[in-house]
Amino acid sequence: MNARTDPTLLTPISNRHLDALEEEAIFILREVAAAFERPTLLFSGGKDSLVLLKCAEKAFGAGRIPYPLLMIDTGHNFPEVTAFRDFRAKELGAKLIVRSVEDSMRRGTVRLARPDESRNAHQSVTLLEAIEEFRFDALIGGARRDEEKARAKERIFSHRDSFGQWQPKAQRPELWTLFNTRLAPGEHFRVFPISNWTELDVWQYIAREDIALPSLYYAHQRPVVERRGLLVPVTELTPPRPGEEVVTRTVRFRTVGDITCTCPVASDAADADDVVAETLTVDVSERGATRMDDKTSDASMEKRKKDGYF
């Protein structure tokens, strides 16, 4: 008998570890509520933001989360995810604010180089416009340090200047869990309560807390094409290219974002316990394994974050 066939063998260690991570996240969520006047929680309906929302529910109680939820919609999101986003916000009695990249395009603040260009990076513009509209002084996000190198440089309380930009060499120290939340006019913070979690921690927590997720996170049949080592989903936005063969594969999504840049992975994992077991064997980060736009050097995450990205 092993931990895979008998989950109780993992319980004593896993729960202590997850308890500590949960307690830290709850502490940070309460710190934000105490230190800032107009915070918001970035909520996409993805697994990390759903874990964050669960921690917020534990911190304050259903119907009592003291800040609104904010979603920046590219207009190219998976409908299963946006539907789940709306359902979960309503279930918790939380205020949900949605701002769209398409609105920024109509205003002329976002201009695409070509019609089929990914809108993912352009979310920065819409996000900064929403910050100005609502005068948010803290934005709580579900980013984790293990996602990729630029996120690993972040502090938990990550300062942004009056232009919404991130200066990685000017981050403030966070010794002994003491956070410097001083702000000048026009500045704000991005706050990452699950920064110290890993993808495995997230899935263990989802399994332990029985957190419902959009169905895309689990194994399902989907037409795909193989492109540059990735399984590209075949949709109206991502049609096959000449010479590519469309095949139906059993896949799941490790992360869900803009349809035009998010790929699934081959998987038979049907529930959270299956995903935990599968995650123990992977050696490539979820972004590295599933994001088309992260494969190009001119679209580096560090540059995007300096420009105001999540």
Automatic annotation (TrEMBL):
Q: What is its EC number?
A: 2.7.7.4
Sequence segments annotated as region (Disordered): 288-310
Q: Which UniProt keywords apply?
A: ATP-binding, Nucleotide-binding, Nucleotidyltransferase, Transferase
Occurrences of domain Phosphoadenosine phosphosulphate reductase (ranges): 39-263
GO molecular function terms noted in the UniProt entry:
sulfate adenylyltransferase (ATP) activity
Name of the top EC class for this enzyme: transferase
Superkingdom field: Bacteria
Family assignment?
Belongs to the PAPS reductase family. CysD subfamily.
Q: What is this protein called?
A: Sulfate adenylyltransferase subunit 2
Q: Which organism is it from?
A: Ramlibacter pallidus
Q: Which gene encodes it?
A: cysD
